Amino acid sequence: MSDLPLIQADHAVPPPAATTKGGRGRRLRLLSRTDRVVITLMVLVPLLLVTGLVWLPAVATVLLSGTNWDGIGPVSEIEWVGAKNYDDVVNIYPPFVPAVQNNLLWLAALFVVATPFGMFLAVLLDKELRGSRFYQTALYLPVVLSLALIGFVWQLIYSRDQGLLNGVFGGDTDWYGDPDVNIWAVLVAAGWRHVGYIMLLYLAGLKGVDPSLREAAAVDGSSETSTFFRVVFPVMRPINIIVLVVTVIESLRAFDLVWVINKGRNGLELISALVTQNVVGEASRIGFGSALATIMLAVSLVFITIYLWTVMREDKR
Amino acid sequence: MSRPRSQAEYLARLVPPSVAGLNRRSLLAGAAGAGALLGTGLLAGCGDSDSGSGGDATSVSLGSNQSDPKPKDVVAKVMDGFKTSSGVTVDINTVDHNTFQENINNYLQGKPDDVFTWFAGYRMRFFAAKGLAGDLSDVWGKLDGYSDAFKKASTGDDGKQYFVPASYYPWAVFYRKSVWQQRGYEVPRTLDDLNTLGAQMKKDGLDPIAFADKDGWPAMGTFDILNLRINGYQFHIDLMAGKEAWTSDKVKKVFDTWAGLLPLHQPDSLGRTWQEAAQSLQQKKSGMYLLGLFVGQQFSGADLEDLDFFTFPEIDSSIGAKALDAPIDGYMMARKPKSQDAAQKLLTYLGSKEAADITVKNDPSTLVANSGADTGAYTALQKKAAELVGSATEIAQFLDRDTRPDFASTVIIPALQQFIKDPKDISGLLTSIENQKKSIFTS
């Protein structure tokens, strides 16, 4: 009974069917002509961009994945082949299974090793050590470099015959060529970069934590460790979610590094690299590559759905 | 929290608590393929050159894949020669070699340059059949100095010419004369000789055969030459055209022979580039190296003079050792050049003795296709290479130029790397290749 006036008040502001005329008149008066133009533009321009740059290509990819188009000739000549491309991907395309495994391994390595390590570094840097600016810059530098450049830098280190690593330690491990080793070597390079990225994100979050929380915890006699895990970490929930999402995205779209090294072959297969091998370049198996891309899209959608679901549930609470 | 109390609050709640941009970005990542498609579309415009000369024939544009400094310089000199002889300026658009090759589909369907560099082989015929290249039969009527082999290599499926050969290079087994003299090695004539020689080199502490396949294509050269020696040229061509089964005993024999030779190859080849393998030959760490004549780029001065080669030894005496890979580089014309007349004039010049002479004078690492050219300036290595190709009964282009590019790059490269990794499961590998071949060649 007590919230009855509230409901009435609510109804009064955006009036229901009964008072449409008056309502519209009021809204028009609220927004001037310029306002309306601006709002229309602000809605239309991003809408067009998102539709044109995201949704149309995505839908086109899904459609093309049912064809055998080779990228030559008019669209009218495209032949529909149904699920053949998917059948081929799963059954007769040897690089597909290793690619899926490598993507999962990539996710696991970033999630279990690189991300926690980046967070750890952020916590250390948050302590205002001497020269923390320097460490910050040094750790963040790999993020500024393009992955293509990182691939090249590590090539100098990993080269079997002329590389730094084998040169210094006198080994003859074929870091980039041995399919049992190279994925780990690449993960080190990718992790090196990822650590800096996570560190910066997390450091920004840590700086934003209200210092009075820590003081209160200290007054209550909480140790450094338990302050972090019981007070700071829970408070940083939004940042934690961002870090998690960034990690998932980074591992799904991992591409440039393996592409620079050996075009994603021989132990370094990743779905994104297979898509590129098939679609871009001389091969032009657009249909087949689109099928791979669609599979990747489906996998991404799983993570995106989980993320959105979590965020929205949080919203409702 | 209940309902929003103001418009501002309502709008603010539309944005998720974390950064809204992330959603968009992840969607983008998911639609990587879509992005790639877009990307290729954009790249199509890259080769476009607006010389702004319209229909008049005072300039003609050339799309060149000769991006390395030396060949680039040679192209510039040849074009200068054309300007002197005809008065027509050539606008050269140089694109990185691999990029050019990978974007060729979009390039040709967009606004290609009037004349562009390309290779003889399957791809050239494919573009001709798709109507993406201009008919050069008229130009061929004015050319002389080309053997029938070159004319055949320039002819499309419809019997017309679409290609003007400029240069070529043979694939052979390279070695250092000084090392071989010092150790008393002799050029092997048969597979058994090669095995004996390899065993001896191993004893002497050398890697007998330098080998690199990080980039995926060099191993194709090994496959090609073994297939040519074991099954002959015609089988090679039919296999590349998808007419023969990869599961046949003939192909199996090629891989069996290769597996027998693999212990003589430099180990860990999948992490090595051809440049590194060539340097191991140059540093006298390996005994020989099967590669194209371009291996000479890694040698200079006295080392280059020390370089020699022999053609891969005979395996089957009924097949002999006369066939080889000698890819031909040259020029093609766009389907609709801005000025057909100027483009044809340029192509006629590019096929002429004069253009070949300029190339010979400036580039010691290739052989010119025009036999009328003054080859007096050839180095000993070039002379020998020209003789080798001249005496060849059949000339193959190279695996990735003789077959469909989608088959070569997405099937054969991973398959050959798989074989090098694990040479034991040959029949499993061949079944996999055959299955993929059937799917690709029927589409």
TrEMBL record, chain A:
A cellular-component GO term for this protein:
plasma membrane
Please give the biological process terms from Gene Ontology that the record holds.
transmembrane transport
Q: Which InterPro entries match?
A: ABC_transporter_permease, MetI-like, MetI-like_sf
* PROSITE patterns attached to this UniProt entry: ABC_TM1
What the entry lists under CDD domains is as follows: TM_PBP2 (cd06261)
Q: Which UniProt keywords apply?
A: Cell membrane, Membrane, Transmembrane, Transmembrane helix, Transport
Q: List locations, semicolon-separated.
A: Cell membrane
All copies of the ABC transmembrane type-1 domain together span: 100-307
Where are its TM segments located?
37-58, 104-125, 137-157, 183-204, 286-309
- Matches recorded under Pfam families: BPD_transp_1 (PF00528)
Q: How does it sit in the membrane?
A: Multi-pass membrane protein
Give the family from UniProt: Belongs to the binding-protein-dependent transport system permease family.
The name this protein carries in UniProt is Carbohydrate ABC transporter membrane protein 1, CUT1 family
Q: Which species is this UniProt entry from?
A: Micromonospora marina
From TrEMBL, chain B:
TM ranges are: none
Which Pfam families does the record associate with it?
A: SBP_bac_1
Q: Read off the SUPFAM superfamilies from this record.
A: Periplasmic binding protein-like II
Protein name per Swiss-Prot or TrEMBL:
Carbohydrate ABC transporter substrate-binding protein, CUT1 family
